[in-house]
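Backbones bend. To wit:
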Amino acid sequence: MQKSVLLISLCGAFLSMNAHAQTGDAARRKESAVANFTTCAKPVYPKESLRNEQSGKVTMAFLIAEDGAVKDARIDKSSGFALLDDAALTAIKACKFKPGTVDGKPVESWHPVQYVWTLKDSTPKERKEKLAKAKEGAARGEAKAEYDLSNALAGGEGTEKNMAESLKWLEKSATQGYAKAQQALGLVYFSGRHGARDTTKAAHWLRLAAEQDQRAAQSALSMLLYRGDGVRKDEQEALEWARKSNLDGDAPAEFHLAALLMIMAGETGDVSEAAVLLEKAAAKDYRSAQEALGKLYETGRGVEKDAAKAFELYSRAMNAGSATARTALAGLYERGEGVAMDKDKAREVRESTGATEKRE
């Protein structure tokens, strides 16, 4: 596997940064927001995407607040892969910008941006050659080639993006027993991302992939088993698959296992193992883990109560776009826990966004 990098290109409003415009009879002076990507945490290519050689371009829009923080963000055009979309969205929410202004006064403004996930040294010529090879192999009925062709069509690599064709080749590959294809197809049915959600079909394909040690499939199958969604409810088997999904120590798997352990523990059970897992995932800047761990430190459950630590974790999660952490942080300001009491700051934090929470 080649190493990979995240290439970032900007479009739309950022193509004319610092430009001044005059509109209307009174001619108002406008200045566009300025992007400073050095303020962002280094984007991380999802491990599962690397394993499956996923790449593509995701187009987003984000709202820059008056203080330069990213107040809201949305996906306008998918890369074709949920993990890449979510990783790009998380990265942009952690950035800080110089806000746009009107007559010198900071104003909120929406801006488009593209994240291009691509394998290192993958030139247009190489992508076309890889596509041609995948087509030839797929025509011969080779399962890996069918999977590669599906990926190329989903990400628009060397060809036009075509999700219908992508899913057709993905199912062909999965039917032949190719584990990565089974996992990808199961996740499509699990999420309903490219059509109607079907958890019965999801459970079928995810189980086949999980039995071939596909980590994302193990995690998703665990969720279905715990909820009894599309499959017979079995909490013990759900926990077993969640533990297997965490063998590689990925942050999403750590968080999922921790969440399952906390749910099964109920309101009074021991969550110390979950706290350890959340510490690991939070250290990897996984926002949902930061939220959950902050709550444990705030309440002293599974860890020694530490409001200052909770404040730190909530702050990090809020800066990554968490509305849940924003509300919790405002509560700490109101009560003076982990930080000096400041009712005005609490109100400012609470009212600083109308963003809709987007889960990881």
Q: What stands out?
A: Residues 1-26, 354-359 have pLDDT under 50 and may be disordered. The longest strand covers residues 109-119. The chain has 15 helices and ten strands.
